Amino acid sequence: MLNYIRAEIYKLLHRPYTYITLGIMLVLEGLYASMFAFHNSHSLVTPFGGAVATLVEMGSIGFCICLITGDIVFAAQYKNSTLKNEVSFGLSRTQIYLGKLLAQTLLSLAYLVVMMAFFIGLCAVCLPMNGPAGFYSSQDALIIVGYFLAAGIPLWIGGQAAVCMCQFLVNGEMASSFLYVGVVFVLDTTLEVAGLLSQGWFGNVLVKISGYFPNTMLNNAKSVVGDLVYLGQAWLVGAFWLAACTAVGLYAFHKKEIKYWASARPGATA
């Protein structure tokens, strides 16, 4: 198992896709930070704390990054049908599944560390540490972002588990991406609307369930900074999604024939 995980990480470290994707995201971050610096040069002063605090408005981007890192790890399965080779090598399906999930999660966490350090460091260099009244102080902004990350990490890991589940549930890169978007970004809103349109206890249950989707939980975290009870709920919800999605994905993988992935590649044969 450890050797397989090392092999997955080795492939990630030697895959241009990994660095090209990270480079694009860092460029976008640089442009975003530069926007604040440009505005500051035209009398609108946004200090370090004001810029850094805007990170809490971008929690949904983390779930998009989960989809990207999942694709980086799993894309070769669709392109080259390498999954059947891994099974024939003697690895159990559970080892393969958990190895890919762990590789995706580690890559996502690595991206998170690099991107957060880059943006905060860039803001510290380009923006004044103190600003006019109405903006967060540097210390307050870092506390807010720290709480947001503490709540976000388990929820993003739950989202990463959903990515891996979708990749093993359906055939094809595009289909798995659409399924993930539906599960993480659409289903919670659908349940909430259905609950509001329904009457009685059933509608209340639907609304309650919609509040325990990772994206919804993370979006609500920015309004309850410092609430340790909510932080604990975020970890429980993240753990639930991790366990539930992994169980469903493992079940699907054990039930599928390997030719299922070979057929995802145009012209491939079982």
SSE blueprint and pairings:
Layout: H1 2-13, H2 16-40, H3 48-52, H4 59-80, H5 83-88, H6 93-126, H7 138-169, H8 173-197, H9 200-210, H10 214-221, H11 228-255, H12 259-262
Question: What does this entry show, briefly?
Answer:
The protein is mainly alpha-helical and 270 residues long. The protein has one domain.
Describe this protein's structure.
The chain is mainly α and 270 residues long. The chain has one domain (2-262). 79% of the residues lie in helices and 0% in strands. The chain is built from twelve helices and no strands. It has helices at residues 2-13, 16-40, 48-52, 59-80, 83-88, 93-126, 138-169, 173-197, 200-210, 214-221, 228-255, 259-262. Helix 6 (93-126) runs antiparallel to helix 7, helix 6 (93-126) packs antiparallel against helix 11 and helix 7 packs parallel to helix 11. The two termini are 27 Å apart.
Order of helices and strands: HHHHHHHHHHHH
* SS summary, helix count: 12
Low-confidence parts: 260-270
The total beta strand count reads 0
Q: Biggest sheet, in brief? A: none
Give Rg in angstroms: 21 Å
Q: Tell me, what's the shape?
A: globular
Strand content: under 5%
- In round numbers, the mean pLDDT is 87
Helix content: over 70%
Total of domains: 1
Query: What structural category characterises the helix and strand content?
Result: mainly alpha
Q: Distance between termini?
A: 27 Å
State the main characteristics.
single chain, 270 residues, 79% helix, 0% strand, disordered C terminus
